[in-house]
Amino acid sequence: MRSMMSERREENMYRVVLVDDEELELTGIQRLVPWKELHMEVKAACPDGFSALQYLEENEVDVLVSDIRMPIMSGLELASKAQRLHPNLKILFISGYEDFQYAKQALSMKASGYVLKPINDDELLGALQSVRSTLDGENRQQQREHSIQQSMVYLKNELLERCLEGTPDRDAVIELMAQFRLGVQVGSLRAAIIEIEEKDWRTESQHSEAAQAELLVALTSLCSRNGLEMYCRQSSRRLAVVMEESHDTAMLERMMEELSASHNATLTIGLGQAVEELERLHLSYEEATKALSMKMFQGKGKIIAYSTTKEEARESVLNIETTVDALFAAMTQYELVRIVDCMEDLFQQVKNIKNPSAVRNYSFFVISRLDGYLNSLNESLFSITGQNGFALDKLFEFETIDDIHSWLRRKIFELSEQLHNKRQRKNVKLIGQIQNYIDQRLGESISLKEVAQAFSFSPNYLGHLFKEETGELFSDYLMRKRMELAKRLLADTGKKVYEVADRVGSGTLAHFGKQFKDYTGMTPGEYRKHL
């Protein structure tokens, strides 16, 4: 209903249904009332109560203007049924009978107005203006309530986030949470971080922003239905949740299963240890963060509970993230020696992993990160290596980190070379297009800025790229091509020197003479004599 009200406010038009068994009266009201000025629109003009009721059953309506006395179904009967369908419907009765009983019944139904026939235009207009004022007021109230609700959501999110992070003003935050009834502690508490996983990179598709937003809404709805009212959004894919003593991991498992069934989404949950006071909740939150980071070794789609024995491994995780970023940068820049160094560093940090399952999970983590990195470059493992380019089934054959080290290093080398070759081919084609563009305009006054604009690059970048690919500065290339053209033109003795100067874009004859001598060591005249 809220979205419908928002749409109505944007349109600023209220929807009206007219009902009268007298055709002239019905047509007259529809045509003579300045509906647009009232910010109203007649959606239906019905000759009887039955057709009006049918329309009301199928459509949203704001105002019902109805004759009271009609055959078979009176206006009062229609209004009674209509109010059950639309509790906020405003009703304006019209009647040719000055009957107190009708007026009394109309008032008991909380009708917004009662206009007698023959209709006085000013009286009807005044009644409709009163209805509109009431609707406007209700809409403003709804907007205020919605704003308050949104503010409370933001407040709850902010307060809970600050409480979890253990800010210096945590005591004041906890007091505010209690004041606004944002969470009442029952027994011990523990923090959980729920992360919506991206779809498996091997499917060559990821969740769009809209899909991620929908998943997060579904996740918060799941939390509320399961009594997890203390939660705050941390990102488009992550929710921090406070669990009370009555909440157990079985409930989290059910939530994971339900979201998987309804949205084909996978959750990974990091779970901190229980604490007895709200003041210590930030410690549980820190543990949940550490537990979630261990999905590199534990795998996705699981509940990973914090354990002090995993502290040393978690420190490796932080270093691994940095090393992986450096590895990908080296791969992109085709720095093979640096790739070797990064790989050695990377696998030295996890040398103590002996569990085959952890080795595979670690491998999947690195490859998933690799695909995400390539996506940021508008590339993908599918487009570069093909669906079977990484032969992931082979991962299940590995039992040690040395095996995965050797295999992955070879694959990174292959991928780096393919990226390098692809970039070279792409740049060669681009430089060829730029050179052709220049060659066709040698007689014009062209500049690096103009060419960069034509190819949608910055002048600095294009100048750097041109020098990197050709080994020649843009200005040197332009001069060389112009002087080579000048030499060919000077070979035609029928052409005047000033004509050649004009053809190569040198401007004045004196300027051309200087350029030509600087380039060849001879004046244009001397050059002709040596032909």
Automatic annotation (TrEMBL):
List membrane-spanning regions. none
InterPro entries per the UniProt record, alphabetical: CdaR_GGDEF (IPR041522), CheY-like_superfamily (IPR011006), Homeodomain-like_sf (IPR009057), HptR (IPR051552), HTH_AraC (IPR018060), Sig_transdc_resp-reg_receiver (IPR001789)
Q: Where is the signal peptide?
A: none
What are the record keywords, sorted? Cytoplasm, DNA-binding, Phosphoprotein, Transcription, Transcription regulation, Two-component regulatory system
Residues carrying 4-aspartylphosphate: D67
Q: Which residues form the HTH araC/xylS-type domain?
A: 432-530
A single GO cellular-component term on record: cytoplasm
Q: Where is the Response regulatory domain?
A: 15-132
Q: Name one Pfam family in it.
A: GGDEF_2
Which PROSITE patterns does the record cross-reference, listed alphabetically? Answer: HTH_ARAC_FAMILY_2 (PS01124), RESPONSE_REGULATORY (PS50110)
Q: Where is this protein localized, as stated in its record?
A: Cytoplasm
What is the protein name for this chain?
Answer: Response regulator
